[in-house]
Amino acid sequence: MLLWGRFLTGIAGGITAGSIPVYVSEISHPSVRGALGSCPQITAVFGSLALYALGLVLPWRWLAVVGEIPVVIMMTFLCFMPTSPRYHIMKGNRARAVKSLEWLRGPNSDYMTEFNKIERSIKSQGTQWSDLKTPLYYKPILISVFMRFLQQMTGITPILVYLEPIFHMTAISLEPKYDAALVGAVRLLSVAIAASLMDKAGRKALLFTSGFLMYLAMLSMTMYTHKTPCSHGNLTVTEGLKTTYVGSTGPAFDPVTLIPLISTMVIIFGYAMGWGPITWLLMSEILPLGARGVASGLCVGVSWITAFVLTQLFMHVVEAYGLFAPFLFFCVISVVNIIFTAKCVPETKNRTLEEIENYFRTGRTFTILDP
């Protein structure tokens, strides 16, 4: 039953991971799209933190029951949510598209001007396999896929999955039940900061900051785990990555162990501030409308396949080469992310989706040219 439940939630998570960012980007005004685009990540992190906190006082069966409450609320609210105006236009439902946009922007706004731009942009597109050869399609798709690939190559998933063994190997004396709560609090704080700065500082500035913080923290972890023995003679890694301490008393507190603790928190903070939420947001912003559904699914698939492979390989690499080896690799990836951001990622702050598409079409400008 647990495996079946996990299978169903995995399918649901995959569907929502690909559709929510696209929907939010299509209904949002450019001036607030960055903040709203961060909301799925914020709510996901907040939900995780809430479950971590409840897990301290509730048995897991009741925790599963509590998890049904947000699902019921979400299904209820879905009944009142409008369909994306862009989707209505693509299906030829012009009247419904106008009504939807009017509801989203308000009857006193200049929603018809925005509607005309959206309609003109969609009518100028035709989606065929041959279109993948044009920069309008292959450039944003490649950027989105590589961003999702590099996002997972930072190692955030195996670090979160194996956080308890990592803390034990680096002699961080922290009770396991507090690991998840601490991580959840740090993630929530960093994503909230990113959301507040998204439409002010811009996407690229936060990606640079995120990559630089992860680079420094990964470098610190690499140096610490390379110079300091990680086993301390009291750790046994058993089947299922369970850890058992020999002896009834743990080692005395060593201030040096604050280095891996702070570094791990900085890694999580840096990731959740930029490369976590912004890759989802940029994917929904730059993908061409005609291929957005399939391309977003491709991006999500690449992301989770990469995360799965890294998670499977992580402990094997640690056992073969030591804990410093994967952190050295993640450190190099952080540098690659910074270079990739500088060379390939466009700044989409305060740009409409039509302006972003025109940028990839012309390669020069974000403006919309009237016929």
UniProtKB/TrEMBL annotation:
Main subcellular location: membrane
Keywords: Cell membrane, Membrane, Sugar transport, Transmembrane, Transmembrane helix, Transport
Source domain of life: Eukaryota
Keyword Acetylation among record annotations: no
InterPro entries: MFS_dom (IPR020846), MFS_sugar_transport-like (IPR005828), MFS_trans_sf (IPR036259), MFS_Trehalose_Transporter (IPR050549), Sugar/inositol_transpt (IPR003663), Sugar_transporter_CS (IPR005829)
Stretches assigned to coiled coil: none
Any single Gene Ontology cellular-component annotation: plasma membrane
This protein's record includes keyword ATP-binding: no
GO molecular function terms noted in the UniProt entry: transmembrane transporter activity
Membrane-crossing segments per the record: 6-24, 36-54, 60-81, 141-160, 205-224, 258-282, 294-315, 321-342
Membrane topology type: Multi-pass membrane protein
One Pfam family in the UniProt entry: Sugar_tr
Localization: Cell membrane
Ranges where the Major facilitator superfamily (MFS) profile domain occurs: 1-349
Protein name, as recorded: Solute carrier family facilitated glucose transporter member 6-like protein
